[in-house]
Every structure is written in C-alpha cells, then in structure tokens.
Design a protein that fits this description.
The protein is built from 18 helices and 21 strands. With 518 residues, the chain is of the alpha/beta class.
C-alpha cells in the first residue's frame, strides 16, 4: 500500500493541530510533522498523541534542506521524544546515521516506530545514487528514502525503477517541477509514501503537489500498476488545464488511465531524449501524449524519423498536437494527429450553423502566423475559404499565405495595420494578445474593423473566458467564440483517439469553466 502523506511545517501548536485536522479531512493517510524549529517537547508530545492520523516525525538538518540548527545528537533526542509520544515513523538522514556510527533501533519493530533513513540532494542527482540505494537496502532502516533535484524529466524513470526494484519499503522522489510525476505516480509504482502539501501555497519541498490535486485531479485512489499513463508535453506546463480535463473524463467513463504534466526542455534534442526514455520504460505504460508549445514541430520531426504513421493533415500543417501510442507488451506503434484542425472548423461551423463545405462562401481574417494560425489557415483553405493572414511580422504572414494559397481556397497576406479596413466576415485571433494577465490588450489595437451583427469573432484564448476582443465584438452585436470551445473540442478528439470511447464533451467543458472561474 502506498500512503498519501501531507507534509506540515510546525510553527506553533495551534497551527499544527489545525493543519492535522485539515489533512485528515482531506483524506491523508499520514502526516509528516516537520519539527525543524519547533522543539517544545511537551507540545510535541501533545501534538502527536492527539493527532487524528498517524504521524511521521522529522527534524530536518540544514545540510539536507531543512531549518534545524540542532546537532545530530539533539535532533535524534527530539525524534525519540516524538516516538515515545506515539509517532508511527521517525525520519533521520542516513548521513547522520553513518557519521555518528549509530546502530539503529534496538527494540523489535512491533514495539517501536518505524525508522526512515533518508537522503536529500537539492542540487542534482547523486553521483553515487545506486550505491546509496544499496547501502540503504542493507542498513537497519525500516524504510529507505531518497530525494534529489531532477536534472530533467528523464530522472523520473530512474525513480520509478528504484520503487519497482525495492528490497524494502522505498520512497524515491525527484524534486522540482520536472519531478512532479514521481510524486503523482508513486502509487502506481508501489512507493511506501508520496508527500503532498496541505494546499497549493504550502509546499515543504520543490515540486510538491497539493493533496486536493493528487486526489481530485490526478486520480490517486484509482491508480494501479496497470494504469495507463498519458500526459501533456510542453515548456512551460505548470498551469495547463489538460490534466484536470482528461482525468475528469477518465473518471467519468471509468477508464484506467491517469494524465500528467510532462515538462520537457524546449529543444528538439530534449524532446527526442524524453520520447526515447519514456517509450522504452515498459512499466510506465505510456499510451498517449498531448503536445503543446514549443514541441508541436518537434513531435512531427521525431515521428518522421521513426517512420511512424502521421495523419496527412498534420503533416500538411507541419505540426502534431497528439500522439497515439498503441502497445502490445514491449512493442509499440506511434501515430501523430492534429486535433486543433478539426476543433477550429467545428467551433466555427457550429456557431454559424453551416457545413464545412459552406466555408467557401466566407472571407476569414486570421490574426497571427504561429502554430495555431498556421492550423487555422490550413483548415480554412482546405475547405475553400478566402483567408487573409495578418501578422506583426509581415514576412512571416506572406510566407504562410504563399504556402497555402490555391491549395483549395485563396490565401493572401496583409499588413496588420490594415486590419481596420478588412472586409472579412470571420475574425480569428490566434495570438496571445489579451491572454491573462495582459487582459486589457486586444489584437485589433486602436483601429478595429467595423464589426456588426453580421460578423463572427473567434478568440482562441481561453483565459480569460471573455477577452477584451470578445467583449468588443459582443457590444457590436457579433457572434463570438472563446478559446474554451476550441480547447475542449481538441481535447475531446484526443480522448477518443486514445480510448476509443466518445468523450464526455459537456462535462469536459464544465471542468475548464469551473477552474477558470476560481
């Protein structure tokens, strides 16, 4: 069994009692009490003896990321006080055990707390990692714990392997944002415990996830060894809505999967190294990926080299935002898709109540020549629309227009300052202008086109749900589409490609709406 443990830094007795009650209320199995600067023995005894859930007591040294200024002898004495008060486990650094030649617990396990020998490196992976794990395995610790600052997301594979190959109950943690998945997936790999924060504002270590997110977003209670893993690959990735949306959808249809954030450095080389290490680690059961900035072009390049199946439209667009991984034991096949394409088309045609083929009767302004702009141009041109590309850099707009002109529809470019003279019926903003926190900005600038109730304005931004651009369009009577619709539709297409099941579209839409309104 993997325990879910909330880490609590003890500042005073009442705060710690309150936090223990909240940890129990939120579903924690254990609480780690960080006693680094709280040394009142009577208060510690009261706190532990009255705790509503079992306790791990820790007095972390400064050398390993804590705040305690006590020497090893006094820290050990304080831990023994906690043990006598009823703590279930006591955590002390393995280095302190070795430095002081302590022989470890004298009483049999049934008569004492469990001892966790731990090692922390807040700089990088220990050079002697595997020897350290061997030494911990052969020590008289009841539980081995090792934590290190992840150099990249690939360090997590080593942590997963340490959990699987354990000789005694083991905790293996990669710290930092790149190491979050070692905490999220600890239950899948049979770790003794995973540490969570009480809330998002009180982590006691880098990359710690709140207990609410572990249980409600990352499907902690549903995870098993055979749970399939999916994720969103990008940089940055911390604020992605995708984990909440896909995990809620997995819950809704009772699918045995979990979806996680995968922070991968921005280069193609980093993406390639991530793919090769994560695909080859069979116990992970990596089964599908969402690809976001800056890796959509990297994903296409990687799939081409491997001669994987690529959706023709994704290849034409030059970007992949979805990878389907079909597994049969150690064998796997990859397929690259672009679900943004259909999401853009379906959002527009649903709003106008027309078919895709009827887009040939429309003139569309696409603002922005980046990845989403490129996808919009390709999709609209394919169905015969006349497309005008506006971009801050005119040369980039011209290049995009030339690439897709006359494929089916007509594609031209125009200077951004001429947008006010546009005679288009549909306007699509594919830039980040107006995104949180810069919500007062608008891609129309100070000279907007003459929008009326005959127009449709589509902003691919979904935070905020209603941008300044959309407020302006509504005030002029125009139909509007926010980025939520595109986001949910592309996510639904991914879900169906991965699971073979229809996506709960309305529920997914509600999840995003609720999170944006918090």
């Amino acid at each position: 069994m993997t325990h879910l443990c909330v880490s609590i830094y003890v500042n005073d007795l009442q705060q710690a009692k309150r936090d223990l009650a909240l940890a129990a209320e939120r579903g924690a199995d254990l609480a780690e009490l960080r006693l680094d600067t709280f040394t009142d023995e009577n208060a510690i005894g009261q706190l532990i003896s009255q705790s509503p859930i079992p306790v791990i007591a820790t007095v972390r040294s400064k050398e390993e990321g804590g705040k305690s200024e006590l020497d090893d002898i006094h820290r050990l004495a304080l831990l023994n006080v906690a043990g006598e008060a009823g703590a279930s486990y006591l955590d002390i650094e393995f280095a302190s055990i070795l430095d002081n030649g302590w022989s470890g617990p004298a009483k049999p396990r049934s008569q004492r707390p469990g001892w966790i020998y731990s090692s922390h490196n807040f700089v990088s992976r220990p050079a002697n990692l595997h020897q350290l794990m061997i030494d911990l395995a052969h020590s008289n610790a009841d539980i081995s714990k090792i934590a290190w600052q992840a150099r990249s997301i690939r360090d997590n594979i080593e942590a997963f392997d340490l959990m699987l190959q354990r000789h005694k109950p083991t905790i293996a943690i990669c710290m930092g944002e790149a190491g979050m998945i070692s905490r999220i997936l600890a239950k899948k790999f049979g770790a003794f415990v995973s540490f969570a924060s009480l809330d998002s504002g009180s982590p006691t270590a880098p990359g710690q996830v709140s207990i609410e997110d572990l249980k409600r977003v990352y499907r902690w209670d549903a995870q098993q060894l055979d749970t399939r893993v999916y994720g969103v690959v990008g940089n940055p990735i911390a604020h992605s809505m995708s984990p909440a949306v896909h995990n809620a959808a997995f819950d809704y249809v009772q699918y045995n999967g979990v979806y996680v954030p995968l922070l991968v450095e921005s280069s193609y080389e980093a993406f390639k190294a991530f793919m090769e290490s994560f695909l080859e680690f069979e116990p992970l059961m990596l089964s599908g990926l969402s690809i976001t900035i800056p890796h959509k072009e990297h994903a296409l390049a990687y799939l081409k080299i491997g001669r994987s199946k690529i959706e023709p439209l994704a290849e034409q667009i030059g970007a992949v935002n979805t990878i389907v991984i079909s597994r049969d034991g150690s064998r796997y096949d990859l397929e690259g898709l672009n679900t943004d394409y259909a999401a853009i088309l379906d959002s527009i045609t649903a709003a106008l109540q027309i078919t895709r083929e009827q887009l040939q009767d429309y003139r569309v302004a696409v603002i922005g020549a980046g990845g989403t702009g490129r996808t919009a141009v390709a999709a609209l041109a394919h169905y015969g629309a006349t497309v005008v590309v506006y971009n801050r850099t005119r040369e980039r707009a011209e290049k995009l227009a030339d690439e897709f002109n006359s494929k089916t529809g007509k594609v031209i470019s125009a200077p951004l300052e001429k947008l006010c003279d546009s005679c288009c019926q549909i306007y699509i903003n594919t830039t980040s202008v107006g995104m949180h926190p810069n919500t007062n900005a608008t891609p129309f600038g100070n000279f907007p086109p003459a929008i009326t109730d005959a127009h449709l304005v589509f902003d691919t931004i979904y935070n905020p749900l209603e941008t300044r651009l959309l407020r302006y369009a509504k005030s002029r009577g125009a139909k509007t589409i926010n980025g939520l619709e595109m986001f949910v539709r592309q996510a639904a297409a991914q879900f169906q490609a991965w699971t073979g099941q229809s996506a709960p579209l309305n529920m997914m839409r509600q999840v995003v709406t609720n999170r944006l309104r918090k």
